[in-house]
Design brief:
The protein is about 35% helix and about 20% strand. It contains 16 helices and 19 strands.
């Protein structure tokens, strides 16, 4: 049975459920303030900081970023982040404990060393970082400096994610991201010398001029540097949405069959090197937190992707940042200027959100287990939420189709995706999405006015 018909480009990646397309202005700053005030004082939280700046544009990238050669816009933005941190912490019941924080972008390592150290010191005054807290930062090896790596080490950063994408110079030129193996290796060595020992790499397949051989060579070069984790994403070409991509020549993009071969070859290379396959698109060494969490059934999925954290609360800071707090989700103003204006006026920058229902919670739990474990005990999950599994299973027409086509095994309320069909896990998760019709189309009355950051991320990572 061919699974091509299930690779639907419109399906979400289910980092969260419901997805951002269901957010509305009905949930705003007032609801966010209430949810912050009602947070349990002793429950650890996760923090995310969005830093939307880069020195140059990578043509494949769909994230909302600002290209700047100057530091002033970055310094102004960091000042706004500090003000938002203060506004949020003042609304919390007390100095909340933090188990992990993540700086994403853009290129967070563009924050200057002194400014980053000052920001971390301010955070420690406003929040209580646990002794084992993970502090993660995304960096670009092309702009990374010895002064910044010293600052990261001094600030207690213990995990770093490096964008690699491809080491093939022909591919790099075609996507406007020229980054040598030597640059990447030097960054890794500097980080490890300064005590930042946990390293992540991002790779992409399906890029212009990529071949199976060049993907394998990139994977082998990456493995030689022994990162703890690798994320292997598929490039989705949507130039009508992502203007950068209009600079990429479509004629040299690999087709769907070639893309599938590329991913399979990369996966085989990483597994042969001792990495464990995690969820849909991640690989980790056996002693990495993700691999251990998967082994013990504790792997989680949130707006940042796969995670080993058990925190129920994720507080997002910065333009477009998404958080899960209290009774639902919130998102900040998407544009940088609008975000800064709200914060400068002394108010939270929440632009929209979503209040979860009991039905949303049980569906989210099922979808999360499917995306993490490729299986879900629907009956047990429904029981834990006080929900009737018959209601969900009887209405899941897509699930019946998937079982009939041999994609999943489905018995006594237990759904398991057959290993050879793991890449259509989104289609399986979609069987429990109340906002999709049987053909995978959104039927929510809300209309998406523009492509939001999560949608751009979904497109960038797409296997479809």
């Amino acid at each position: 049975m061919q699974t091509t018909k299930y690779r639907e480009a419109g399906l979400p990646w289910y980092t969260i459920y419901p997805t951002v397309s269901e957010f509305s202005g009905a949930v705003g700053a007032e609801a966010y303030e209430e949810w912050l005030r009602n947070l349990p004082a002793d429950d650890p939280v996760s923090l995310y900081f969005h830093v939307p700046f880069c020195r140059s544009a990578c043509w494949y990238c769909g994230f909302p970023t600002t290209i700047t050669r100057h530091d002033a816009p970055i310094l102004n933005y960091v000042a706004a982040l500090r003000d938002e941190i203060r506004l949020v912490s003042e609304r919390a019941p007390q100095r909340l404990p933090v188990s992990d924080m993540h700086f994403g972008g853009g290129t967070p390592s563009l924050i200057g060393p002194a400014e980053f150290l000052a920001l971390m010191e301010f955070l420690r005054r406003r929040f209580a970082l646990t002794k084992t807290a993970t502090v993660a930062v995304e960096i670009d090896p092309r702009t990374f400096t010895a002064e910044m790596v010293e600052a990261l080490g001094a600030a207690g950063v213990n995990r770093v994610s490096l964008g690699v994408q491809s080491f093939d110079p022909i591919v790099q030129k075609a996507i406007n991201r020229v980054q040598s193996e030597a640059q990447t290796s030097a960054a890794v060595e500097m980080l490890r010398r300064h005590g930042v020992s946990r390293i992540n790499f991002d790779l992409i397949f399906g890029l212009p001029h990529q071949t199976v051989q060049s993907c394998v060579e990139t994977a082998r070069a990456a493995v030689a540097m022994r990162p703890d984790r690798l994320a292997v994403f598929g490039y989705a070409h949507i130039p009508s949405v992502v203007k950068n991509q209009r600079l990429i020549e479509e004629a040299v993009l690999p087709g769907s069959a070639a893309r599938a071969e590329q991913y399979a070859a990369v996966a085989a290379t990483l597994i042969a090197a001792g990495y464990r396959e995690i969820g849909l698109d991640h690989f980790a060494l056996p002693d990495d937190e993700l691999a251990l969490a998967q082994k013990t059934g504790r792997l989680r999925r949130n707006s940042l992707g796969y995670s080993a954290t058990t925190c129920r609360t994720l507080i997002g800071f910065g333009a477009s940042a998404i958080g899960r707090v209290g009774e639902g989700y919130v998102q900040n103003e998407v544009t940088r200027d609008s975000y800064i204006q709200h914060i400068a006026a002394g108010r939270l920058a929440t632009s929209k959100g979503y209040r979860l229902t009991d039905d949303d919670r049980v569906r989210a739990a099922i979808i999360e287990r499917l995306m993490c474990d490729l299986e879900a005990d629907v009956q047990a999950i429904c029981g834990a939420h006080g929900s009737d599994p018959i209601r969900l299973l009887d209405s899941a027409e897509r699930l019946a189709m998937l079982a009939e086509d041999g994609i999943v095994d489905f018995e006594n309320g237990f759904v398991r995706v057959r290993r050879e069909h793991r890449f259509v896990i989104r289609a399986v998760a979609a069987a429990f999405d109340a906002f999709l019709d049987r053909d995978g189309r959104k039927h929510s009355p809300q209309v998406r006015a523009s492509i939001q950051p999560e949608a751009k991320l979904d497109a960038l990572r797409g296997l479809s």
